[in-house]
Amino acid sequence: MEKIVLASASPRRKELLERADLKFTVVPSSGEEEIGGGTPDQVVENLSRSKAFSVAEELKREKEVKLVIGADTIVAFQNHILGKPVDEQDAFDTLTRLSGNSHQVYTGVTVLIRKWDAWEEHTFSERTDVHFYSVSEEEIRDYICTGEPMDKAGSYGIQGRFGVYVKGIEGDYNNVVGLPVGRLFYEMKKIGIDMRGMGR
Known about the structure:
Layout: E1 3-6, H1 11-19, E2 25-26, H2 40-58, E3 65-77, E4 80-82, H3 88-98, E5 102-115, E6 118-132, H4 137-145, E7 166-170, H5 173-177, H6 181-190
Parallel strand pairs: 1-2, 1-3
Antiparallel strand pairs: 3-4, 3-5, 5-6, 6-7
Helix pairs in contact: 3-4
């Protein structure tokens, strides 16, 4: 049986693929996430590539694995990358900057396709612009107290409590959640791969 592997521990990415009726297994990458230099789209593509190849190396002897999907998401404000907050003050500073402004969310996706004993790489990134209403200091502190922002790039999750402050988005909503599923399926169809037909 041909298997698809998601090289990510993100429950949000897992849920998005499940909603797309895709059959897959999860094998999180054990590699360290290191944000190198470059533009936000280059950075996030490199991160997704690193995750995918790390897991592909672990699974190289499992011949039934045909696709490995690596993904990573970053938030950028005025071309400055905002990672996961190091503490509550960092989360507060980040959300204060985003309040009343627009920022960009980039998700990089790398799909590795097994070709005999090698992997063929397909990497792309998707950008979505997110616009926030103004948020008060008290509202930001209340949100931080929930603990929700502490494991999220940009210190918020659009599908969570902070979503009520979103004024609008330009682009793919799922991309902000963590995976541009429509673009993923489109890119695979372009090279003749129907992911829904695998793993069944």
